Amino acid sequence: MTEVHPVVHELIPSVVYSIFRRYKNFTEKDDLSQEAWSWVSSRVDKINKDLIPDEEEQSYKEKRIAWQMKRHLERYARKEKARKSGYNTQDEAFYDTITIAQLLPYVIASIVNDTALEQAQNLINDGTPRKPSAPAEGGNLLAILIDIKKAYLMIEKPEQDILRLRYHERFTLKQISQHFQCAISTAERRSTSALRKLQTHIGGQSPWQ
Known about the structure:
Elements: H1 6-23, H2 29-41, H3 44-50, H4 58-85, H5 97-112, H6 117-123, H7 141-154, H8 157-168, H9 173-180, H10 184-201
């Protein structure tokens, strides 16, 4: 096999560990490492070409390769989890940030007003985008709302606060920046980060796309 770029030897352990930490009950670290090297060997020439020294883009290229490797290992780990848990990966359901953002106002309102999520379900118009139906949950809108509520209550208080301002009180990014006395770009970054943190608690971004 063609000699792989030295930086790959540094990337693999960190990527393997990040996946193993999440799926340690379903897969072994050595198996993940072997799968990572298998992935590298199938595209070693492309990886080496991408990592041709270029000071301006080197860091970006390394992160991109690490991200691609992580996605591959997550697919592998999810398959192992499904196999050992007795279900099919097609039964898994994922939530994109757009759907979460559209449903958050109803979820947060139910928390702030201490009302049942069934009421929020009734308020949502039929045109509201919903995730594809999944056998594990039956594509049930109420189940989606419950998942988002659980995830919202799991994130840190500062993250809850910024999402409440953004999606419940309908603050603009400028108003949020004034509220927290920070730059608009910082307000946007914090808002996006909080939304992605919430997404992570309900399974993260789909690794199959």
